[in-house]
Specification:
172 residues, alpha+beta, 3-stranded antiparallel β-sheet, 8 strands, 28% strand, binds zinc ion
Length: 172
């Protein structure tokens, strides 16, 4: 009785979510041992490089990260998908939009672990780290704007992202 009432009012939300999650997970191809976290293919206006991490290192980072904050459906799928990686396969795996959204904004934290490989789109050399710059930084009242630029050690610009945000000043 209770079960049918739950279904009637759409309260079977958890079960629905699980079905959705399983369906999405089974639709994904198996990952290889290497995952592409940034790429010209993902956003040509921003990236002129590919950044690749080992699937096991990415899994470690995600597990650590989501042990401290709430998990979305996409993140849940990501955490279930990575352990299925074929470690003998060295062909880098690209992420779809949903999985990419899970690590969006954390790319440089993943790079800070020193375990990422950065392939410059210009010299095609592979690096362990890049140089980050802030260009045209402006502070107008509470508005902050500028451009974040990454360069490979040979000076090639491989990332370019304009930002503009409003920060509330704390009364002190
Ligand atoms: Zn370069």
């Amino acid at each position: 009785m209770i079960e049918s009432i739950k279904k009637l009012f759409g309260l079977d939300y958890e079960n629905q979510l699980k079905k959705e999650r399983d369906k999405y997970l089974s639709s994904l191809p198996k990952p290889s041992s290497k995952i592409v976290i940034c790429s010209h293919n993902y956003n040509p206006q921003v990236y002129n490089c590919d950044v690749i991490v080992e699937s096991s290192d990415l899994l470690d980072w995600l597990e650590y990260h989501f042990s401290r904050c709430s998990i979305s459906l996409n993140a849940d799928v990501f955490l279930s998908w990575l352990p299925t990686a074929n470690l003998n396969d060295k062909e880098p795996t690209y992420l779809d939009k949903n999985l990419l959204s899970v690590i969006e904004g954390y790319e440089d934290r993943l790079m800070e672990t020193g375990k990422a490989k950065i392939i410059c789109g210009l010299c095609r050399n592979i690096f362990d780290s890049i140089n980050q710059y802030r260009e045209n930084a402006k502070d107008e009242g509470n508005w902050h704007s500028g451009t974040i630029v990454w360069k490979c050690p040979d000076g090639h610009k491989i990332y370019h992202n304009d930002y503009r945000f409003h920060a509330l000043k704390r009364e002190s």
